[in-house]
Write a structure and sequence with these properties.
The complex is a heterodimer of chains A (about 120) and B (about 325). Chain A is of the alpha+beta class and about 120 residues long. Helix content of chain A is about 45%, strand content about 20%. Chain A contains five helices and three strands, in the order H-E-E-E-H-H-H-H. A three-stranded antiparallel beta sheet of chain A has the order 1-2-3, covered by helices on one side. Chain B is about 35% helix and about 20% strand. In chain B, helix 1 runs antiparallel to helix 4 and helix 5 crosses helix 10. In chain B, the strands form three sheets. In chain B, strands 11-10-9-12-13-14 form a six-stranded parallel beta sheet, with helices on both faces. The longest helix of chain B has 17 residues. The two termini of chain B are about 25 Å apart. Classes of the chains: A alpha+beta (about 120), B alpha/beta (about 325).
Amino acid sequence: MTAYGSVIHDHSRNPRNYGSLDEPDLRREEVNPLCGDRVRIELAVRDGVVEAARFRGDLCTIAKAATSLLTVAVIGMKIDDVREFPEERLFAALEAEIPRARRQCALLPLQVLRMMT
Amino acid sequence: MSHETFELIERLRRARTPAAMATLVRTTGTTPRKEGTKMFVGSAGEIFGSVTIGGCVDARVIEQAGEVLRDATPRLLHLDLGDEEAWEIGLTCGGAVDVFLEPMTDGAFELYEHARREWQAGRAVAIATTLNGDGAGSRSLVDTNARTTDDVYVELLRPPSTLVIFGAGAVAMPLVTYAKSLGFRTLLVDGRERYATRERFPDADEIRVGIVSEIVETMEINARTPLVLVAHDAKIDVPVLRQALTTNAPYIGVLGSSRRGAALKQLLREEGVADEQLQRVRVPVGLDIGGGSAAEIALSIIAEVVAVMNGRR
């Protein structure tokens, strides 16, 4: 059993969409200066819809799982909807109680998506 | 040739100080002074820098330096040593040494400056100096496959080792300073702009900020690239170790306890990294000198790195 449940364990050990796009339409890299989590997300967009997503980063377990889940979730979404992606939906997808002190870990990739779209 | 010798040559060039350079180009017997040892002497017999060849040889070099500078003519000194003289310079038995003594001309300064730039860029370079005949003292940069003959001395200048430090925390600061003073080129890697700054690391030769696990994949790591991981953070240590263990890095040290080290190794083992590779990881890092401050930990690390690079551990 893991500290944060099977979804976080699975996505942190086997992250989806890990890597880079050859020619991304959107790209953004941000760092959490406190803990050093750093992530870069790339999106390919066609007709206002996310066609592909990739990420790379030095990320803790929660941040990596959250980024992995988000890249899965935004593929097929309108770019305007990505910007409005609700935090509650992200935390629900993680299927674990995230301690208050670690919530920023999960929110980093969501903030990156909002900044880039 | 060391970075100290390059720096000394540069100081002499800038000060326009007349100086003769003496190079030990051939020895017989066992000696602590290796071929290539250089000393620099002024026209009044003053010695520049801290290195000498030793004993009676120094006296002959100093004696001849004034003439070499006055005549602007190089000469090759052949010295047969009696047992007592040999003992003075560290030979275990009587033997002979050849010392090439030459004035440092503008051309020589220029060539060594060029060699220094190549050396600092991490490229091996060799200098061939003609020892005898009309062309004595003429020299040129040659490729490293050149051969030594009786009349030409080939001086191979291997580039400095590059110490790569992952993590820009408190231990990294004195570590960079110590490493620099020991002649290492230093490369600092971190993901945080506010830590990996020029203000905190004025001695670092290079600072790279970005996704560390990505940076390490693009680095050229070879047998002259010791690696030290002081981030103390699994999200850095695991991917860096994963990549480092695919290289022939001579030293891979990780800041942390034995327990933490065991946990890191277990994560890598689960990814398929072989135990024989994991044994290359030194954790806890550094020699046991009993210290606990950042400076003491850095000292223990650099001491172990030097010992490994010198083949002592």
